[in-house]
Design brief:
155 residues; mainly beta; two-stranded antiparallel ribbon; 50% strand; rod-shaped
């Protein structure tokens, strides 16, 4: 397309680019240049596990923060045609996980000698269970920025 712009994304909708022949084909060509692929993967995990009798598992009061920035600055200029250039793909993946698991063993049977001890003891004053699993008071924050500046020209 002479004297204008057309989208050439190679059949991939997440890629964008410009072809600009500048009204003529009087010079060399720029092809497959300035293409940028950026990817950032981030994850945070807090895990607490208890498998003993009368215990607890806590994954409490944790702060998790992910900050990610993809920046691309592509400047393509030349004479003649520009083809399949200046395509930018940016991906940011972030995840946070807090988990607490309490798996005490089953209480013993009364077939042996001595008293049966429950798998989860109770507080003698409050009568609340002394075992459990908690993932309380956690803060999770994710922020992401994709910035792109593509300048394509033909002289």
């Amino acid at each position: 397309m002479y004297g204008g712009q057309s989208n050439n994304n190679g059949g991939q909708p997440w890629l964008t680019g410009n072809d600009n022949n500048g009204g003529g084909n009087n010079g060399g060509s720029i092809k497959d240049s300035g293409n940028v692929l950026q990817s950032i993967d981030q994850s945070n995990t807090n895990t607490a596990t208890n498998t003993g009798a009368g215990g607890s598992a806590n994954a409490n009061n944790n702060d998790q923060s992910n900050t990610a920035t993809n920046t691309a600055d592509v400047d393509i200029h030349g004479s003649g045609s520009v083809d399949k250039s200046g395509n930018v793909a940016q991906l940011i993946t972030q995840s946070n996980t807090n988990s607490a698991t309490n798996n005490p063993p089953p209480p013993p049977t009364s077939g042996g000698s001595g008293p049966v001890i429950p798998a989860c003891l109770t507080d003698p004053v409050t009568h609340l269970p002394l075992c459990g699993a908690n993932a309380n008071g956690n803060t999770q924050t994710n922020s992401a920025d994709n910035n792109v500046d593509v300048s394509i020209g033909s002289h």
